[in-house]
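Researcher: Go.
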Amino acid sequence: MRDDVVGYLLKAPAGAVECVDVAAWWPRHRELAATWRNPMDRAIAGGFAADRVGWAFACGYQAALHALFPGAPDDRIAALCVTEADGNSPKAIRSTLRREGAGWLLDGAKRWTTLGPQGALFYVAARD
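Model: Structure:
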C-alpha cells in the first residue's frame, strides 16, 4: 500500500480517463483506492484521477465515509442518508430508530442521498 500521495501526484499522468457514469467510475475508484492506506490519500489520489468534479467529489465522499466508519466494507458504494422534507440540519431529522423486540425499527423518509440509487451500504441519520 502507498503512503506518499505527494510523490504519486508528481509522477502520475495528468490526463484522466473519461468516466461517463457510476458504473464506469466505481471499478476505477476501487482499484485506485485499494492502493492507499489513508482515506485522505484515497480522496486526493481519486480527485486527481477524476475527469470531472463530480467523480472527484465522489472519491472524497467515499473516503470520508470510510474514515467515519473504519470497520465498514469498502467493496460497495456507501451513502449517508440525512436529507428529509425539512432539510438536512440535525434539527430537521424526523426519522427515528428504536428497539422493537429483539431488533431495531427504523421509521422515516429521506428525500435525497448522494449516490443513493447506486449505493449498497447506507448510513442513516435518525433520532432515538
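Model: The chain has a mean pLDDT of 94.
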